[in-house]
Amino acid sequence: MTDTPVTLPTSTFQFSATEAAKHVVLILGALIVLLPFYVMVSYTLKTPVEIMSGSGGLFGTQTPFTDAFCLKAGGTDVECTKSALAYNFGSAFKKAPLLRYLLNGVAVTAAIFLIQVVVALPCAYALAKLRFWGRDAVFSLVLFCLLIPVHAIALPLFIMLAKLGLTNSYAALIVPWTISVFGIFLMRQFFMTVPDDLIDAARMDGMSEFSIIWQVMLPTAIPALMAFAIFSVVAHWNDYFWPRIVITGDKSLFTPPLGLREFRAGLDGNDFGPMMATACVIVTPLIICFLLAQRRFIEGITLTGMK
Amino acid sequence: MSRAYLWFIGPALFLMFALLIVPILVAFGLSLTNYSLGNSGAGFVGLDNYADLFGRSSYIKMFKASLTYVLIVVPASVGLGLGAALLITSVKRFGDLYKTVFFLPVMAALLAMAIAWEFTLNPSIGVVNRALEAGCGTMLETWTWYADGCANSFPLWLGDKRYAMGSIAFIGIWQAFGFNMVLYLAGLTGVSRTLYDAAEMDGALSAWEKFRLVTWPMLGPTNVFVITITTIRSFQVFDTVEALTRGGPSKSTYVMMYAIYEKAIKQNLLGIGTAITVVFLAFVLIVTLVQRWLIERKVHYA
């Protein structure tokens, strides 16, 4: 910069000024976006006293404190003196069966995705590569179903599940999502780009249509499938509306967001830190995956903007 | 050719009917009844539920709350999304970093972040009001709103009916604009460099002129898409309302999804719940039809 000829000082200065102004706006925006994340993390690092009084600086003083509940429960002074972090995450897992909730979340999310693939992939293959009577009608039906928002069918599905006695069950959390018309649409569009020669060669080798799907088409479809996986997993791990409706009493079936919500219901000042620790545990896995594979995540979630 | 295809499309077709088509029809049907779970039958009440929806003040408040939310969140999150995309493409460095940060709220479980926002906005221990109180005694007090806050108290945000909808909408904007930004970033890469060069040759030199003459028209399809999807999603707001305000104070945040949940699930009034569902579906359908019409009509320049 210092070597810039003196003939152009104003224009260079002006230029960097607009650039700086843009960064100021962007940084302000970033700070607001990060504010609740900061609150969440800072609460997990503060003792209940620091949270209530607003002391302890930005991230708490990190001096060990004595947990009164632990003393009441008969713990010794040494056992009950701990860091804020240990207290908050320790209570998060102890006061509520958070581990159970997390396992439920993983099981439900994984089951939904696997069933969606098992249902959607063959259908997408048939729509893209097989010729049969009524194919266009089926595809039109898929396009029509794309327009149906999940919130619009929640109540009838709830009634159907209630009639079958299936509310408060894993089935209630999984079954309504087993059909993903979006998955069918996405995979069909992808299969259209796969050359017919590949399939003809496989048929010539004597492969059945069934094994063509799983041994020839599936491997070629990995990128599209990844995008769909991200969409599906993010949507169902974070979902709150549907679990709230069908899981009414049985806490052993709670998904992570339901568990957090339940935690909040019995709130007292000592629980703010543990609650934010729970929130951290729920949010962190997806954030880490996102940071590791940003491009895929953004692709997966936006291409599904279709929904 | 074997009949293998029947096995391939059969399960999907069956599930589409059982889990999508039939429920929609059931929703229409039940909205004409006073059905409750546990009752042996349901009485046909004709359009009574709809008459209630458009006649009773609590449902009028519901429509008002939902429309207010949509009318705040859609323009703000679309505008901020476009603004962020334009700024990010125009800065020389750190563009990807900003993009990552702005996209974080899209990924994070909304319910968890809603509770983090609740602590942030808490009137006694939240950082927002603490920061506002720290500004008392400075020249900020020349602003009457601020002076009033210092003299009495700063807003209760989620607990005050004048601010609750604004606060909920703010969280909605916070969550949605990063998604819109990414869609706009994709749209912007589709605008050809040569168009800007041509505009420059025609004398459009300022950044604003280039935006008005090239970027904005070329973003037409993206705009339609982004506005449609944001509108539909805004009609679906539920997590923040259920966790933070439960529709209150005085029904100021009583949005449609929460009303459906409260009436149908908590109070077992499935007739009125499905009637709200049908109205919601109608809103979504209108938005979708407007989108189709716009796309076919005039937004294609490329």
Automatic annotation (TrEMBL), chain A:
InterPro entries, alphabetized: MetI-like, MetI-like_sf
Topological relation to the membrane, as annotated: Multi-pass membrane protein
Residue stretches making up the ABC transmembrane type-1 domain: 102-293
Source domain of life: Bacteria
Gene Ontology biological-process entries: transmembrane transport
Subcellular localization: Cell membrane
Keyword terms, alphabetized: Cell membrane, Membrane, Transmembrane, Transmembrane helix, Transport
GO CC list: plasma membrane
Alphabetical list of PROSITE patterns matching this protein: ABC_TM1 (PS50928)
Main location: membrane
Pfam families in the cross-refs: BPD_transp_1
Transmembrane segments: 24-45, 101-127, 139-164, 170-191, 212-234, 272-293
PANTHER family: ABC TRANSPORTER PERMEASE PROTEIN MG189-RELATED (PTHR43744:SF12), ABC TRANSPORTER PERMEASE PROTEIN MG189-RELATED-RELATED (PTHR43744)
Family: Belongs to the binding-protein-dependent transport system permease family.
Protein name (Swiss-Prot/TrEMBL): Carbohydrate ABC transporter membrane protein 2, CUT1 family
The organism of origin for this protein: Thalassovita taeanensis
Phylogenetic placement of the source organism: Bacteria, Pseudomonadati, Pseudomonadota, Alphaproteobacteria, Rhodobacterales
Automatic annotation (TrEMBL), chain B:
Chain segments annotated as coiled-coil in the UniProt record: none
Transport is among the record's keywords: yes
Pfam families according to UniProt: BPD_transp_1
Chief location category: membrane
An example Gene Ontology CC term for this record: plasma membrane
Subcellular location, record wording: Cell membrane
Keywords for the protein's UniProt record, in alphabetical order: Cell membrane, Membrane, Transmembrane, Transmembrane helix, Transport
Matches recorded under InterPro entries: ABC_transporter_permease, MetI-like, MetI-like_sf
Record's protein name: Carbohydrate ABC transporter membrane protein 1, CUT1 family (TC 3.A.1.1.-)
Originating species: Thalassovita taeanensis
